[in-house]
Known about the structure:
- Helix 1 (24-38) crosses helix 3 (56-62) and helix 4 runs parallel beside helix 5.
- The model is unreliable at 1-7 (pLDDT under 50).
- Helix content is 26%, strand content 22%.
- By secondary structure, it is α/β, with parallel strands linked by helices.
- It has helices spanning 24-38, 48-52, 56-62, 74-82, 99-107, 116-124, 148-159, 188-199, 211-216, 347-353, 358-363, and strands at residues 19-23, 42-46, 68-71, 89-91, 110-113, 131-136, 164-170, 206-209, 224-225, 251-263, 268-269, 275-276, 281-286, 303-306, 309-312, 322-325, 337-341, 371-374.
- The chain is elongated and about 75 Å long.
Amino acid sequence: MRRRPHSPTTPLAVPRPILATIDLGAMRHNLARAREAARGRFLWAVVKANAYGHGLARALRAFADADGLALLDLDEARRAREAGWRKPILLLEGCFEASDLAACSDLELTTVVHCGEQLDMLERHRPARPLSVHLKFNTGMNRLGYRPQGAVQAYERLRGLDSVRELTLMMHFANADRPRDEAGPVAVADQLGEFEGVTAEWPEPRSLANSAALFLRPEVGGDSVRPGISLYGGATDEHHPAASLGLRAAMALTSRIIGVQTIEAGAAVGYGARFIAPRRTRIGVVACGYADGYPRHAPDGTPVLVAGVRAPLAGRVSMDMITVDLTHVSEAGVGSHVELWGAQLPIDEVANAAGTVGYELMCGLAPRVPVAEVG
């Protein structure tokens, strides 16, 4: 059966009202703030995970003034080169296969070496052109990297390779976002002490600070910095809202009220009847659900901005909808504007209410959500 072609008298389908807006001006502003905090150090803009959900192509434009990009895989690096990025690119997890070394050479990438297997690959499969390498230390994070004792041998092996053009020493902080009066395990000072205890006499440059260390720990030195979440307007920790650091939200998720119900005291809302109305209650239905990237585990009371007024989530998040209590937002009705997170409702506040972090909400934006950009 053939489809009937659209005619001027056939109304066009109206798109679902949800929209993500990416503000490139905010991203440029945040890069400038990171540049100020870096105080002359080389700045790697971290653009992994599709630039934290903001889009790699957009990040390339917004972060054009960064000194380099840091990301995870060769596909992202290749896309950046094809888009015209000529500055350094750092592979944060290094190479996974020996064949990756040839691509690193062709694309002129800087690669991390964090384990013996990667070092063995570099020794056995010499790339066509010498590579810049970051030797990664494990000083307590216990994910990737050499423990300081093993790093000495790795350092000597790397220095002896003709295939290594430049060597940088690298580590990652586990708790740079922890308040200073809560040292706890794996404290910043302990990690730095362990790192410097081995490398103090080594002349190579250091790459140390993530976003939290960059903005909150001026004692962390080094020669280059690797900000990530701060570039997108996310908080570096729960005690310092992004706005307090001069950062601006780069992603807004908005929608509209698509239905209103008035229910009596004792009536339930949504799957599982989690929310029970304590009084006569106006319930607004928002076109946004977990299939759009809104956290399904968000509890009742999670803030939602409706017509510029905060309203609490009321009922379990479903695939395509959430429900909010509009009892105290009398001006709200069908068609009212809703901000799920953005400039007026910080993403970190929503994430904290849902027991997660802003990183997850940014990265979890679903492909079905249309995206517009400004700035």
